[in-house]
Amino acid sequence: MFNRHFKLLMISGLLLYGIITIFPFLWMIITSFKPVGDTFKLPPTLIPSLLLTDQPFLNYELVFQERNFLRYFINSCIVATLAALGQLFTCSLAGFAFARIKFPGKNLIYGVLIATMFVPTEVTIIPEFFMMRYFGWLDTLLPLIVPSMLVGAFGTLMMTEYFKSVPRELEEAAFIDGARTVHIIFHIFLPAARPALASLFVVAFIHNWDELLRPVLYITNDDWKTLPQALMNFVSQYEAEWTLLLTGSFISTLPLLLVYLAAQKHVVQGFVHSGIKG
Q1: C-alpha distances in angstroms, 259 versus 94, 225, 233?
Q2: pTM for the model
């Protein structure tokens, strides 16, 4: 009897948690189909009135046509994709080096690299800004892509732990067959690390997609702004265009959902096998 009541209580708690978690997202979708100005209309309606008209996607048309949202969307796709792919490459090489290669000071270098995870971005952003200005990269996408493509502490930690789990027999057999290190990395370790690579890609993609500090600091030209900056345009000093803001937020969220759903299976496997838990 106790177990049954406890199980019922657990299910009720999970359902309540699910509703609380999902409701803001559902409300964002519903509001994106409401006319401008109906966001806080009382009593609230669950069926948006625009769906009953001949222009159900009016807010989406306004966002894309009048607010140059498509340009910002493309910029965010370029930044997030290139930065994530670059991080896969650099973190994989660094992870292999720390997991399999012996060299002087390896533990010290690895420890310092992991310690950088605890350094806030705000500490390094000022010298980074002067560096980007010296390179002449301001008002381009380069300062958003290049620093993120370099070796990241979290990605290196993840790939190092995953590569440590690869049986040494595979590596030794490849060496006996005359394979070089590059061949071993790209034909043995990386194929074996697909779940970890998928996990790292999703994490890096989401991080760069949501990045706001660097775009605000480095980009003032509208042609190179990203989606987080575009969403800021819907908020002024005295008011916010809530309907259009939530419409833009839903558009901005969709790619993240699609990327995660496409790689969900590999993401779970990657975190489990690498020994990193959220």
Answers
A1: 25, 22, 26
A2: 0.84
